[in-house]
Structures are given as C-alpha cells and as structure tokens.
Design brief:
Layout (H helix, E strand, L loop, with lengths): L6 H6 L22 E2 L18 E3 L3 E6 L4 E10 L25 H4 L4 E5 L11 H10 L6 E5 H7 L1 H8 L8 E9 L6 E2 L9 E2 L3 E9 L6 E9 L20 E2 L1 H8 L1 E2 L2 H5 L26 H4 L8 H16 L5
Antiparallel strand pairs: 1-13, 2-3, 3-4, 4-7, 5-6, 7-10, 8-9, 10-11, 11-12
Length: 329
C-alpha cells in the first residue's frame, strides 16, 4: 500500500483535528501530556506547523515525534466506549506537517515481517459522530502513529492491552485517556532494507500503554500501566495471547519514565494502584539485553531483545508487597 501526502485532507479537516484533550475525563480529573525529560529533549521534533511547536494533533489523539528515531515518543488518545462505532476508513499516509524525512514510510514496512504497528489503535478513536469517527479511522493511519512491530507480536500479544482498552470496565463513565509508546534501548536492533538508498530503521525493544480513568469504586483518578517486550517469546508465533495474563505485565508509572525518559505529572503517579515503587535491577546494564544477529528468521530465534527473568522475579516481589499493604493490582 503506497503512502501519500495528505495536504488537502489536512486543510479540509483542520477544524476537527483538535487532538488529545487533557480534560476529557472531567475538569476535576486533568490528565496532562507527559513531558520529554532533559536527557532526551533534544530528540523531540519541533516545527512551526505543529501545536506548541511539537505536538501533532489528529482526530481524538495526538503524537509527539522523536526526530532521531523517526517514530513517536508517545501518542495520547481519548476514547469514549459509550459512543464507539465501527469505521472502515483506512489508508496510510505521510503527514506533511511532520515531514517525510521525519517519518518511516511504507518503503521500510514492505516485504518483510515488520508491521506498521498502530500505537493509538484505530478502534480507540472511532467514536462519537459516525462521520467524525470515519475521519478518525483514516487519521489513525498516519505513519507518525506507527512503529516497527513484528507481525507475530503486533497481531498477537499486543492485541491484549488493546483489548483491555476496548473492554475496560473499572471506570465510572466509559471515558478513558490512553498514553502509548515504544521503548528504545542502546542495543536495539535495526532493520536495514536491501535497497541501500533507504535509511535503516530502529526497532523498538518494547511497548507500553497507560490507561487513565475515573474509578467507579473510588470516584478518583486511577490508571493502569502495562509493558510488553518485543522479544523472542512474543515473536515466536501468533498464539501467545491465548495464554497471556496481562496482569503479569502491569508496571509502575516510574518504570515507564525510567525506560522512556518521559516525565509524567505528579498527580498521575498517585493514580497508579502500584504507586511508584521503582523495581531494582531491570535493564540497568547492557548484559540484561541480548540481541539477535539480524532480522532474518533463523537469527530471530537465537536472541531476544529483553530477557524477562528479572521482570518475573520483581513482579512476584511487588505483588506480595502490594498484597501485604492491601493494594489492588
């Protein structure tokens, strides 16, 4: 599928491209966008064509781009389960506000096992007025909203946190604000197209998602955060989601910060039922990350992006700690 520049579409739909609304959950429950910390601030793509110089707004969601990665730092979306509708619009495009040089286009995703993995899911923005929902469906197919995801991961395990959003039921009114993004490490793999004129693309080692909502039990702002590794286990087949217990991949807001360099508003820490106890010894040294030799199938079987031994050990420890303290996970 060929990507195209959507200048005309942008002009025609400028009025409805209001982007992420931080007060979507209510004026008393603001969920502001995270800020890229000082350590990575220089990576943020800045252009006069973007809101505040760096935020690309679409229908019901927004994106902040890493210029060095040519992929998103994160996306932020609003989702109203009550008015969710089915929409068919789907055509991938290069957003000329961002610039073709700052996005990974179809030339990288074609003829290989790497999917254009939606960060903000298409079904999470198709809500409200059916006409608006159709435009949101089209808007979700911006290459700015895509990251390199192996087809076995994108079409399998990554569906689980996406389905959590779709069927989430701990909120009081069906309204959710959702942040999603990739995790890059110093030892990420690279996909190098056979055509040497095409610039190599960095493959994220993991992906995260945070769901914010007003609890129907406490009437307070709460959130759930998840982290899934794009590793050998998750790329092995397309049956992993059948046995995946998503609770085992719930993490703290602090962990997302540590992996991404993002900084969340202080109020958002308190909303996480895990609170913000940092887990020790996870991905603190290069030795905890093992890399395949290449992206060929035979080599993908021989290495992983992350090992999860540390994660499993720390998950057990913190679930016990939370149980002793009476916290719900």
């Amino acid at each position: 599928m060929t990507a195209y520049l959507n200048t005309d579409y942008l002009i025609a739909n400028r009025s409805i491209r209001t982007g992420y609304d931080p007060k979507f959950l209510g004026n008393d429950y603001p969920v502001p966008l995270p800020v890229v910390g000082i350590s990575r601030a220089r990576e943020v793509l800045t252009k006069e064509s973007l809101r505040d110089g760096y935020v690309a707004d679409y229908v019901h969601y927004s994106v902040v781009i890493s210029q060095s990665k040519r992929q998103a730092f994160f996306t932020a979306a609003n989702f109203d389960q009550n008015t969710s509708v089915s929409a068919t619009g789907r055509r991938w495009f290069i957003d000329d506000r961002i610039g073709i040089e700052n996005q990974i286009g179809n030339e990288v995703y074609a003829n290989n096992p790497w999917d254009r993995g939606h960060l903000t899911r298409r079904a999470s923005v198709t809500w409200g007025n059916p006409i608006i929902a159709e435009k949101a469906s089209l808007d979700s197919c911006s290459y700015a909203n895509a990251c390199l995801q192996h087809e076995n991961f994108n079409q399998d395990e990554w569906r689980v946190p996406e389905e959590v959003v779709k069927y989430f039921d701990r909120d009081r009114d069906g309204k959710l604000s959702v942040f999603t993004g990739p995790i890059f490490t110093e030892t990420d793999r690279w996909y190098t197209p056979e055509d040497r004129q095409i610039e190599p693309a960095r493959i994220p080692s993991a992906f995260w998602k945070i769901i914010f909502y007003v609890s129907k039990e406490s009437s307070q702002l709460e959130c759930q955060a998840y982290l899934l590794y794009q590793d050998r286990l998750f790329m092995a087949d397309k049956r992993g989601r059948l046995n995946l217990d998503i609770r085992n991949y719930q993490v703290t807001t602090t962990e997302i910060e540590q992996y991404t360099g993002l900084e969340f508003s202080e109020v958002l820490y308190q909303s996480n039922p895990l609170f913000f106890y940092p887990r020790e010894n996870i991905n603190v040294e290069p030795e905890s990350v093992l890399m395949p030799k290449s992206t060929q199938s035979v080599d993908l079987k021989e290495g992983v992006v992350f090992t999860r031994q540390d994660m499993e050990k720390e998950t057990i420890k913190y679930r016990k700690l939370a149980s002793l303290q009476g916290k719900r996970i």
